[in-house]
Amino acid sequence: MSDRPDLPADTPTDLWIDGHALPSVSGARFDVADPATGGVLTSVADAGVADASKALDSAVAAQSRWAATPPRRRSEILYRAWELVVEHTDELALLMTLEMGKPLAEARGEVAYGGEFLRWFAEEAVRIGGRTTTAPSGNGRILVTKEPVGPCLAVTPWNFPLAMGTRKIGPALAAGCTVIVKPAEDTPLTMLLLARLFRDAGLPDGVLSVLPTLDSAGVIGALMADSRLAKISFTGSTQVGRILLGQAAHHVMKASMELGGNAPFIVFDDADIDAAVEGALAAKMRNGGQACTAANRFLVHNAVRERFTAALADRMDALRVGAGREDGTEVGPLINERQRSRIAALVDDAVASGAVVRTGGKAIAGDGWFYAPTVLDHLPTDSDILAEEIFGPVAVITGFDTEDEAVAAANDTPYGLAAYFYTRDLDRTLRVSAALNAGMVGVNRGIISDPAAPFGGVKESGLGSEGGSEGIAEYLTTKYIALTA
Ligand code: ADP
Question: Are residue 294 and residue 223 in the same domain, yes or no?
Answer without folding.
Answer: no
